[in-house]
Amino acid sequence: MRRVAFVALLVSQAAFAQKTDARLDCKHTGKDFIYDCVIRLARAGEPLTGAQVTVGADMPSMPMAHQVKPVKAKPTKTLGEYRARLDLEMGGEWAVKLRLSDPVRDQLVLHYEFDERGARPVKRSAKSPRK
Amino acid sequence: MDEYAIGVLTSIGLLTFVAASAYLLLIAGELSFGQQAFFGVGAYAAGIATAMFGLPLPLAILAAMLLGGLAAALVGLPALRLRGLYFAMATLAAAEMLRILFELFHWQVQVGGEAVGPDGTQGFRGIRWVFERGVEPLGFLGIVWALLAGVVLLFILVERSRLGTTIRALGEDPELAGALGVDVLRLKLGVVAAAGALAALGGALFAHHNTYIEPRNFDIMLGVHTLAYALIGGLGTVFGPLLGVALDLGLLEGTRVFQGYRMIVFGGLVALLLIWRPRGLLDERMVHWLRTRR
Amino acid sequence: MALIDIFQNTLDGLTAGASYALLGVGFTLIFGVLRRANLSYGPAIMLGAYAATWVSLHTGAGLLVLFLVAVLATVLAGSYVERLCFAPHRRGPAAAAMVASFAIWMQLEELATLLLPRHLYAFPALYEGGALHFGPFSLRVESLLMLLAALAVCFVGWKALYATRFGVAVRAVIDDPRAAELSGISVGAISLRVFALASAIGGLTGFLIVASHEQVTPMLGMWSTLKGMLAMMLGGLGSLPGAVVGGLALGLIEAHSQWYLGPQFRDFIAYFLLFALLAARPPWMNTRSAY
Predict the structure, then answer these.
(1) Beta-bridge partner residues of B114
(2) How large is the ipTM?
(3) List of chain A residues whose C-beta atoms are within 8 Å of the C-beta of residue B259
(4) Does domain A19-121 have CATH number 2.60.40.1930?
(5) Cβ distance C253 to C245 under 8 Å?
(6) B interface test, pick of C269, C271, C277 with most B CB neighbours within 10 Å
(7) Does residue C61 belong to any structural domain of this protein?
(8) Interface contact B219, partner A, CB < 8 A
(9) Sequence-ordered strand ranges (E) for A33-105
(10) Number of independent structural domains in chain C
(11) How far apart are CA C254 and CA C102, in angstroms?
């Protein structure tokens, strides 16, 4: 029994050790600031299917101030793709949080810049913010 | 409980640590625009402890509080004799310096084949100690509020003690307090350090809640907001800062009634409220009135 | 050649410093008369700039009109702040006024973003043309205009303070509000007018800044507040000439720090200098009891 538990622990550790890759594709719906987003998840090169994905967001410069209602992403016909509608209070840079449960537990934070067209991934530079 | 509600309640709890930190300095008579920096020190310290060195969370929190208190004391010491706006500007300058230092802070170690650690403006990812132990959002909410309850209890005890009275005396009239034999500078330094440790405690929890922190999380807006929460909630009791945070996050933001206009409403309400109640809702007079009703 | 760099950086520093000096003067006027820091000063300027941008986007009006809009909007915002945050707390605790001004800061910023939701807007250029070149040095015409504006404001302000009755009253209130009140000066009326004056200067400064950069962003509010307060404190709180010197000094320090050490150190050094000065409290910093 203990050996089974030990092996199970090893396996789960291995599952944790692998990282989930996520890509976000958002389109502005026309209503401020609601976006239709497609999330692509993959693990070790394979698309991740059947995951429970909850999407939330926070503004880096004022954490906890803008409570975006977390939404459950719905899987689409494509493997590893999920759909969610994000209702942000404003445009700008957001830290999108993906919480995965079942069968894999993971938590990801992605930075995207949201404007009137959609969302672009942000690569932070070394410069401090200026006017 | 609905996940949105859990999120809002957790945020309220976390921000109350910073607001209470500002409150402590306020009742000691000083305005601080810089408590967010110690929130950041706590966040980085705890994150480094758990994600880079595998220390358990309680130990990380202790380390965070120690470092936060130390940093605050280091900042407070040269500024000790300053008062009013001068002290406030000194805290602002110090906080911004700390934030820039976070932007320049690069330190990574190999953990399980990956580089983990603060990476300047790219932030500090992978603070997953709490997450990896299967603690769900509701469980973490419990941890935050349990610790907050402990802090509140401590405040209540201190405020009823001689120390509390002395601190308030310092806030009311430092010259008089000094004339009555209070070591004004030492007390002020102690309050500054305690406030720093308190903010750091919140920061440690924040880092593990978010699993990712970056220098921008700790900028002036956080500090000024939490200061405002303390002043609006009231300076009569530690429930004041809690009330202030809850009013903004819980009532206004949480109910999403004023979507897009929240700050206009909140800002206007605050300005009007301060005309009527310059020391906040739960100010000393209100607290006294509530206490003597029994 | 290093000497050329030093001179060019000094030139650039003085230019940036001119805008900081103007911001510092606005802050100091309010602080000197009301003994309180107005945290809504920057946001009021931002609202003025945003109003001008809105007008520019919807009507394509000329620079003069935009300038007037900016100044008017800033003065209106400033008066609103004065009535709501400072007039009621004149005899009360100073912290309440400052926090109220912070609350209105949030309000004005949200108003501005409601007016113009995006993160970047173009603004008509102040000057369409190249920079001036003399030898190896260059000076943008916009920068020259900013310097001239700062000089003009200083000159006009100096004349107003020392050659008009209004100026005498203002100086009396700055010196000792209670004595001024007893001499028959209405401190409340003076406060409102000084606020309007400071806001007008702020509106001018904001207009020059966004026209020089040809763009407007929501960071303008916080940026103006920080630079203005830094300039005010570096030059010795409550001193108008000090604010000018402080602003210019800040610009110089920033320009040289940035050249040799990069943008992060530029900011760090400015804050460090302020902190060090506050800690050392030299006599010219005028650390009278202040809120």
Answers:
(1) B111
(2) 0.90
(3) 89
(4) yes
(5) no
(6) C271
(7) yes
(8) yes
(9) 34-43, 46-47, 52-58, 71-75, 81-87, 92-101
(10) 1
(11) 26
Distance between CA atoms of B99 and B214, rounded to whole angstroms? 10
Q: Which two tokens stand for residue B197?
A: 């440790």
Phi/psi at B238 (5° precision):
-65, -15
For residue B278, count other CB atoms closer than 10 A to its CB. Answer: 20
At residue A18, the pLDDT reads 60
Whether this model's pTM surpasses 0.80: yes
Tell me the C-alpha distance between C54 and C111, whole Å: 12
Report the distance separating Cα A114 and Cα A97, nearest Å: 14
Res A126 pLDDT > 50:
no
**Do C74 and C47 form a contact (C-beta atoms < 8 A)?**
yes
Other CB atoms within a 10 A radius of the CB of residue A88 amount to: 19
Identify the pLDDT of residue C15: 87
Inter-chain Cβ pairs, chain A and chain B, closer than 8 A: 67
Chains that touch B (3 or more CB pairs under 8 A): A, C
CA atoms within 13 A on the CB side of B258: 18
DSSP 8-state assignment for residue B31: -
Residues spanned by the domain of C173: 2-127+134-285
Give the CATH number of the domain where residue C160 resides: 1.10.3470.10
Residues C204-219 pLDDT 10s: 999 999 988 888 888 8
Q: What DSSP string describes C87-113? A: STTSSS-HHHHHHHHHHHHHHHHHHHH
Tokens matching residue B169: 């005396």
- Partners of A131 on chain C (C-beta within 8 Å) are 209, 213, 217, 219-220, 223
